[in-house]
C-alpha cells in the first residue's frame, strides 16, 4: 500500500495509481473516482490528476499525516480506497451479488430454460470441453473422466423433452431442482465462484467492446448490461437495437422498457428496470 505522501505525489504529477488494463480508443490510460456531492462514488471521469483545490495545498500535503480538513480528508480517503481496490472488481462484486440473488446457486448440473447444461450461478457448460474442465466432485471426491462423460451423456439425452421422467414435456417448464438426482456430480462454493468470476470478466470485456463509453456509464446501467450479457450471451446491437438506440440517446425511460427479457423471472426483470430508473436524470443531459 502506498503512503499518503506517495499517493498525493502521484496525483500532483499526473500519475494517479488507478490504471486501465485495456484502454479503449479515446480513453486515457489512467482514471480516477471523483467524489460526488450526492455521495455517488461510482462515476468515472478520465483525467491524469485528481482535482485538489489550491487552497488545500500546503506543505502538509506531502507529509505522512493528512490534514484535518473534511474536504481534503474525503478526497484522500477516496484515493486510498480506490488505489487499493480495482474498480472492475468492485463492479464485478456488485454484479455477482445481484446475479446470485436472481439466479441462485445450483451445485449440480441441470438444464436451463433453453435446454443448455448449466451449473452454479447460471454458468453454461453445454459442450464437452467446457463440461470436463469443471472441478467436479462425485460423492465428495474428484470425479473421474468416466464419471464426467456418463453425466454429460445423460444430460444430452434429457434434452429431448420426451426423455425426462418418461413424459412428453418441455424442458423450459422443469425446475432446476428436478435434475438433482440425474447425476452424482457436484461442485463446491469455491468452484461456483470461480466459474462466475471467469464468466463475468469475459462478459465485461465483451460489453466494453460493444460500448466505447462503457466506463462513463452510470453503474446501474453497467450492471444491467453485464447481467444481460451474462444471462443471454447475446448483447449485440442487432439483437438489442432498441436498447442500443435508447442508450445512445440517454433516454432513461426507453432504456427501462428495453431491458426486459422474456426468458427471465419477473423479479429479475423488475431489478433491471429499477436499476435503470435509479440513474440520476442529470446523466441524460451531460
TrEMBL record:
**SUPFAM superfamilies recorded for this chain?**
Lysozyme-like
List the residue ranges forming a coiled coil, or say none: none
Entry-linked Gene3D superfamilies: 1.10.530.40
> What molecular function does GO assign, one term?
lysozyme activity
Which key words are in the record? Answer: Antimicrobial, Bacteriolytic enzyme
Biological process (GO) annotations held by this record are: defense response to bacterium; killing of cells of another organism
Q: What is this protein called?
A: Pesticin C-terminal domain-containing protein
Amino acid at each position: 500500500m502506498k503512503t499518503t505522501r506517495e499517493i498525493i505525489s502521484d496525483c500532483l504529477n499526473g500519475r494517479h495509481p488507478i490504471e486501465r488494463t485495456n484502454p479503449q480508443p479515446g480513453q486515457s490510460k489512467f482514471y480516477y473516482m471523483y467524489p460526488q456531492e450526492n455521495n455517488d462514488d461510482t462515476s468515472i471521469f478520465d483525467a491524469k490528476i485528481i482535482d485538489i483545490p489550491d487552497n488545500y495545498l500546503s506543505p502538509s500535503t506531502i507529509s505522512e499525516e493528512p490534514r484535518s480538513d473534511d474536504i481534503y480528508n474525503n478526497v484522500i480517503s477516496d484515493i486510498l480506497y480506490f488505489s487499493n481496490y480495482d474498480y472492475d472488481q468492485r463492479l464485478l462484486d456488485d454484479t455477482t451479488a445481484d446475479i446470485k440473488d436472481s439466479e441462485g446457486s445450483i451445485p449440480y448440473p441441470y438444464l436451463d430454460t433453453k435446454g443448455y447444461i448449466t451449473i452454479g450461478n447460471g454458468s453454461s457448460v453445454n459442450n464437452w470441453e467446457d463440461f470436463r474442465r469443471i472441478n467436479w466432485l462425485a460423492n465428495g471426491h474428484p470425479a473421474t473422466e468416466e464419471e464426467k462423460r456418463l453425466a454429460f451423456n445423460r444430460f444430452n439425452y434429457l434434452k429431448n423433452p420426451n426423455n425426462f421422467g418418461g413424459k412428453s414435456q418441455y424442458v423450459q417448464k422443469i425446475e432446476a431442482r428436478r435434475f438433482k438426482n440425474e447425476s452424482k456430480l457436484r461442485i463446491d462454493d469455491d468452484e461456483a465462484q470461480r466459474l462466475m468470476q471467469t464468466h463475468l470478466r469475459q462478459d465485461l470485456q465483451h460489453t466494453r467492446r460493444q460500448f466505447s463509453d462503457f466506463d462513463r456509464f452510470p453503474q446501474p446501467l453497467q450492471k444491467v448490461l453485464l447481467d444481460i450479457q451474462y444471462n443471454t450471451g447475446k448483447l449485440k446491437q442487432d439483437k438489442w437495437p432498441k436498447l442500443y438506440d435508447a442508450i445512445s440517446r440517454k433516454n432513461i425511460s426507453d432504456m427501462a422498457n428495453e431491458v426486459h427479457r422474456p426468458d427471465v423471472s419477473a423479479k429479475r426483470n423488475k431489478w433491471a428496470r429499477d436499476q435503470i430508473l435509479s440513474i440520476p436524470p442529470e446523466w441524460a443531459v451531460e
